[in-house]
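Regression report. Comparing outputs from two consecutive submissions.

Submission 1:
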Amino acid sequence: MVKIAIAGGAGGVGQEIVDALVATKKHEIILLSRRDAPSDSGSIPEGATWIKVDYASVEQLTQVLQGVHTVLSFVTESTGEGSPVQFNLIDASVKAGVKRFAPSEWASSGFTHMGWYAFKEATRQCLKDLNKDKKVLEYTLFHPGYFVNYLTCPYPSMKYIPFAELPWDLNNRRWIGIEGGENARISLTTVNDVRNVVVQAIEFEGEWPVDGGIRGDDISMGEFLAIAEKVRGGQPFTVENREAQEFEAGTWATSWTPAFEHPAIPREKRASMAKVITGGMLLAVNANQLHVSDSWNKLLPDYQFTSVDDFLTEAWSEFPV
């Protein structure tokens, strides 16, 4: 048993991981949050303790992290000029003697075309510099690629993570892509596989790899479309491909644009952000930025990952045709 601190554990991905760790009944878990504990004690997972923290105070964070073995961060930050919360968590972890740290990653291995992930780059550099001369803090960058669960939208296949429409809309059998981008590769991993890998990573006796790729499946965009059409009854999708230059310039136009309802984005900005994020995501996939390594797959050879085909076939068999 180890003591685990979860920063930002009230968010969607964080809650998924917390549930998985609590279910093992092996660890002491503390949830760090800027907010007061919920008045309804039932909303705090049994076996976890809620602690209100000031992420601007390294001193307070250091006190809270005393005796903690592993810190998992799910805190998001909106600026690319720095990552103060991550920096302070790292600083406090070192001062408190934390052994392992996982910064707020949980997505792609690269950031090209995805400016909303820029804050992660500063954190990566901070950790790299910290261990430049000697190992000060063991860490891994958990990279699952994209959650395949998003592809059941609007039908639920995740307990906590909010849905966002994608340019690959299985429900309405429509698809937005980049002309000539059929061979670009994308890594897709189920939320359940990510949960299970993190649980096993906590108990892993070897050293954590810096490159923490978690690869449920890795397929070309052409294969992806073929699987999508198959699981949706074999009917061809309406495909609207545009040139990469149009997405780069923001001038692309299609008959529809994915709606973006993420709670972190103000409602009045969601329409404009939807176009920016859709274009950025497609360009990132075309540049293989959502193609991740299989580092954790190799370290956990006995674990069986769920393929995109198997997951979507089973999921869509339960939803309306």
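Submission 2:
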Amino acid sequence: MNFLKRRFSSGDLQGELRDEDFIPPVAPRKGPSPSAPSSPSKTASAPGIGRGFFSANKPTYNRDRCKTLLVIDDCHTDWSKYFRGKKIFGDWDIRVEQAEFSEINLAAYTDSGCMVDIQVNRNGTKVVRSFKPDFLLVRQHVRDAHEDWRNLLLGFQYGGVPSINALHSQYQFLDKPWVFAHLIMIQKRLGKEMFPLIEQAYYPNHKEMLITPKFPVVVKIGHAHSGLGKVRLGSHYDFQDIAGVVAVTSCYSTTEPYIDSKYDLHIQKIGNKYKAFMRKSISGNWKANTGSAMLEQIAMNERFKTWADECAEMFGGLDMVAVEAIQGKDGKEYIIEVNGSSMTLLGETQEEDRRHIAELVLGKMQIYCRPTPTMSKTSSTGGLMHYAMNGSQGPTPQMPPQQQQMQQNQQMSQIQGNNPQGNPANARGPGMMPIGGQGQMGSSPMPVPQVGRNQSMDEEDTMKNLRKTFAGIFGDM
């Protein structure tokens, strides 16, 4: 790959492309995203477009002490700014990489985890990156009306990448009838009054669409998403027509009664932060989530909180969840669906919500991304080698209990060597506390045991064996 180490002209990638930054080309594809149109766009003045993709300047993180966060979202929201300057484990930085599903390729291995390749175009600049993510934040729908990215989801799970929400729960959201089936379980447990789920019928294929429902009715074909794949029908003739459409799609379908609504309800929970919104269409569309709509944040109440809490327990627990409901003109409420970490953020509090998400991610990374303890040449390994080859001369910082026991054995051997008669009252070894003093491991007095000649010989043999063992591991010094 040495031929890649060259500088590009101003019309191409700026800076030096490293071997590890090269990946095969990927054809980018676009799809809908939960990011709201009012999400802040990154200005062109900031280097690297603020996503951790590429910058000709030096990185703002310590390469040797950082954890990589991969955010899957569109380019309307710059997630790197919410983690800039944040630390985990005291002094570890957060390296943020951001891309859409369509810009990602990956490979996962049983022994080395998941490696991600991304190729994106930002303001006419082609950016190529390859890295190993330590944590994942998914803000895009894994499956929508156009795309199904479960192959990437499987790769992240295969590589053991921790995520918000958990990858296991995101896999459960790949089919809306599966999610609705779990909502039915909640309703059976709490009752229809406490958890007012809308009535629904499920058809695995068009052949079962024989019983005419009560009209008007809403038919959802397949994994209906963001207003797509949903049709309102007013007669059994229309129902027969739509059954013919379902026949050529080879999809399942669901039907539910059409509710003449006053407004939609959106109840969200991010960690332990709750919010509720009212959304009313002003464009005349019966789908309040399409076209123009009036949005207003409303007060949370215990009823809404119960809905969010109960849904957050699904699939082993959801860190982020949004409950969608309808307030009918009949005065009743109807829960229609639930979304996970890809939920849409609404209203003027989107910035606050993103900060809450960032705090949630940092807290999870503190738990799931702890650095693996390693023995460096200058500390643990060096101390063991020095101890094995030279006895107890020189410190061995931050020794585990086994090393401390080894040091105590060696010290007792030195005591015996300096005191052949085995009189502990006259024994003083390097670094030893006087009798009646406090030992290294606690505040209680450390009694000096009676040491005999045979025990001293055994300890000397032990030290020889230890030296041979470390010599075999690290080689002859």
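Expected: both submissions complete independently.
Actual: both completed, but the second showed a warning that disappeared on reload.
Relevant detail on submission 2: Confidence is low (pLDDT under 50) at residues 1-33, 35-57, 375-398, 418-452.
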